[in-house]
Structure prediction request, 492 residues.
Amino acid sequence: MLTHIADKQTALYREHLRLSAQMTSFGGWTMPLKYSGILSEYAETRERVAMFDTSHMGEFLINGALTDGLDRIVTPKIHDMPLKSCRYGLMLNEAGGVKDDLLIYRMDVDQWMLVVNAGTTETDAQHIQAHLSGHVSFCDVSSQTVKLDVQGPRSREILGSFVPGIEKLDYYTFDEFDVLGKNIIISRTGYTGELGFELYGPEKVLLPCWSRLLEMGVQPAGLGVRDILRIEMGYPLYGHEINEDMSLLEAGLGRFVDWDKDFIGKAGLLKLKAETLPQKSAALLSDSRRAPRCGHVIFTEEGEPVGKVTSGTFSPSFKKGVGLALVKTEFGKPGQKILFGSQGQKEKGTIVRRPVYQQGSLKD
Amino acid sequence: MEVLEHYHYTKEHEWVYLEDAVATVGVTDYAQSSLGEITFVELPSVESEVEQFEQFASVESVKAASDIYCPMSGKVLEVNAELEEDPELINKDCYESGWLAKIEISNPDELSKLMTADEYTNFLESIG
Prediction:
């Protein structure tokens, strides 16, 4: 597959080539799409354990009081976050459109780490710096940070065999752990719906850590299966379910907003909140193995267009197509029968509750 | 990439194997490898008439949906019903158990518009 010459490579790039991964271009990076095969990587993640190189994502360190800007930049309540906990949230533009979604780590009372999407790292850095007051320190550590996601019901057991103490981590918390002689940050978070961990550290720790996990039989997994796993969970992907031109309310992410505080985009969002939402995000399951695809139209059973598919794929667990869509609010309720496809070819499907896949080991 | 002797090929990476007036058709090793794991196959109805180089089937993989074009004109005699439950047969064995359809051909001269195994091998090299 062709990749852009300008695409960046992660520290694990040579490993991916050595393992004969098929590479793809994503968010300005050349990343593994798959290794052994997307379906086998799926089975490993859902049933055992797999690891993903997610070093393309951006990491920012911020040192300063909340009142110096950070609290206004992100949507969730963060002032009450316990030390060493994580929270999911969004960053908005002035109009209330979504600039990015992110994970917020509270390292200390006034020390934070933000983890953002690869394709938006640069614009996020500019946006954040523009809204932080002068005496807050901001450091983009993306280029020095290797990130490795270890995900699956056996992830705790596998990591626990050489990372003492990891079994104590609760869902959405993190700590520093000794990995092969060096301290790195590990959080109990992920993007798969399975029990899992995200490791952040320098190349000199995470490269040997990757090799160690490979030796232990952990399957490397690529972006192909990562997309299936997150669609089954109903997790949004920036550029598909969320973007600058839509509100987080339409994306169904209103619960990640602290309405009691001031934040960038709040005025625009409040206005939308007072109105009835014309459209909202919903999950759908195909009646057949045929998959909904991004760009497909959603129709009523009578053939009236009422929305569009934002992400779609084949679900190996359901043996059916699965997808996420933006549909007129009245057609977005679970149980609603719909058609998807194009004017010339329509397939039957049903709007379903999220997460579509409910058997995950996420909170085990 | 595996290319079999005695088969004929299209530029869209379909193959045809002719026995008297019956053409068995499928997709090539190159096609299955580029598509990735196949998750769904839509086949033409038996008895339907198909035209050379026109779309007659479609496949979906974990990556994308693709149209399949018929290598020769004729009437569909039989389709591979096993693909309905096990579309990955195409990935496992594209030239044998992963066949798509059998066609009673209406014009044997159309074979001249297809590539031989040698020509297809050269074609694969030319597209890298």
The longest strand of chain A covers residues 98-108.
